[in-house]
Amino acid sequence: MKEIPAIEGGTPIREQKIFYGHQYLDEADYQAVLEVLTSGDDLTCGPRIGALEKRLCQITGAKYAAVVSNGTAALHIACLAAGIGPGDEVITTPITFAASANCALYCGARPVFADIDDRTYNIDPESVQDHVTPRTKAVVAVDYTGQSAQIDELLAICREHGLLLITDGAHSIGTKYKGRPTGSLADMTTFSFHPVKTVTGGEGGAVLTNDPALYEKILLYRSHGITRNRSLLEKEPDGPWYYEQVALGFNYRMTDIQAALILSQLDKLERFKARRREIVRRYDAAFSEMEQLVVQQEIPESDTARHLYILRIRPEKLRIDRRQFFDALGAENICCNVHYIPTYYFPYYQKLGYARGLCPRAEKLYEEILTLPLYYAMSDRDVDDVIRAVKKIAEYYAV
Ligand SMILES: Cc1ncc(COP(=O)(O)O)c(C=O)c1O
Prior knowledge:
This protein is α/β, with parallel strands linked by helices. It is 37% helix and 14% strand.
């Protein structure tokens, strides 16, 4: 006999709610933060900023890293460093957080949306190629859910047309592409250390690059456009206090408190990655055999530190739609989310003239996905509950 979903009066799979993501903090993290507060060191621009930047370079193989206040700030100054400005176009994906496109708008440029690959849900290089115009300046590719974008194909397009490739790696710290860590593969890569991400600093971000000229610009934009670097000064210093503002930058600095927490979290990166992969393996094994469900595919080049688990439903095989599936899981106390609403659906973008229908594959995906719980501290029991709940609903409502 089929179990009756809780939404129809059956008993929920579990009594306690479980959410789609949650940070993991341990004693070492608390101590790291406490140590900053009691050290007497500068709370911003102190010793942990350089230490974190060095560590990010070690982990990713990038030559330069600049940490900033959050991932959105990282994207903004990456675009500024790329020289993106009014009249330019920046190609990105609609299946992402709004910041991946907003960064172009901040610079006065126009985001152009390329469609996704239907198997991986990452930006489709062919669609990118189709959207290149003489105004295109850069591509912002997102490592959606942690899976690496198709770097080789994207770099080939960018090199052919003289574009810069920026990867938004907000989801992908710890991921490798062809054995090389994300962060060292594109012209610039940005990270986010928001609490639902694999590694957190409360808030935080970083820009990584191998290019010294881009790095110089990133440093300037991070801190008001102010420099003490002699080679950048336009006038003779009139004293040891002297500095100049040579560009219009921002206060996008990270505090040492954030840096200490991120450094401590990075000590656990391999553990975080391994546990997340284990959960993904169990979900994939359970769901790939069900004809009502679709499992996200991975390109063989990506060795993924998975940040999000996306479950796609096949509406033609079910008597319910995504919203009803989402509500049915909620009634089982499995609290999901949806990543993402296509960026150009937002009223702000619609008022800028973006119409629905731009990216049909992304739009269809949005109708069919939900984000299941995935985080380091999930117990095996939690994972079992999610699997049982998904199966219960998919089987009960199968056509
Ligand atoms: C894909 C993506 N890009 C950019 C961001 C922005 O990062 P932050 O929240 O650190 O500003 C996020 C996270 O929220 C994200 O998921």
